[in-house]
Task: inverse folding
């Protein structure tokens, strides 16, 4: 693997973040389960309770692209965690607990059995680029190098909404990590 691993994603309670609009979030109930690939809006207070409007990432990109309002279920703030990129190289040990969503350690794309549609991180000389989706599996290009094609996440979702093929770039597999 070329370069260092991207920093892991560590979920933090939404109540600890005053601004949530557009952030990736995970919702769930400790001990029961988790749902990711969601986006949040800023919290709202109803009576004495605080809720977070939460929508799917596809609805988020649709609303942003088409300047629409979309229905967002209100989730109690204590059931919402914000995905936060941490400092570090991603090599720390992970303790699995049912009290909060698990950390996401980056996985080299070359070790995955399938990557199409996955959130990926691209290694570049001065760091990492996030917010990408893999649009192909890993393949050998004309030069014999293992590569995959990736696109910006907004274009990934626009592809589903409009049918417009996204602009992609070929990236060597040893520079890609699954988020």
Result:
């Amino acid at each position: 693997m070329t370069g260092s691993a991207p920093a892991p994603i560590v979920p933090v309670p939404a109540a600890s973040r005053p601004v949530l609009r557009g952030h990736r979030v995970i919702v769930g109930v400790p001990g029961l389960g988790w749902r990711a690939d969601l986006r949040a809006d800023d919290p709202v207070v109803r009576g004495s309770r605080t809720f977070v409007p939460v929508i799917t990432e596809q609805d988020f990109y649709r609303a942003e692209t088409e300047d629409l309002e979309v229905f967002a279920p209100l989730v109690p703030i204590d059931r919402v965690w914000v995905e936060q990129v941490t400092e570090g190289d991603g090599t720390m040990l992970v303790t699995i607990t049912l009290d909060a969503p698990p950390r996401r350690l980056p996985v080299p794309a070359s070790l995955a059995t399938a990557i199409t549609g996955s959130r990926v991180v691209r290694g570049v000389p001065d760091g990492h680029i996030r917010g990408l989706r893999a649009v192909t599996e890993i393949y050998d290009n004309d030069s014999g190098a293992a590569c995959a094609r990736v696109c910006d996440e907004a274009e990934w979702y626009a592809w589903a909404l409009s049918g417009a093929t996204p602009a992609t770039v070929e990236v060597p597999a040893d520079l890609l990590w699954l988020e």
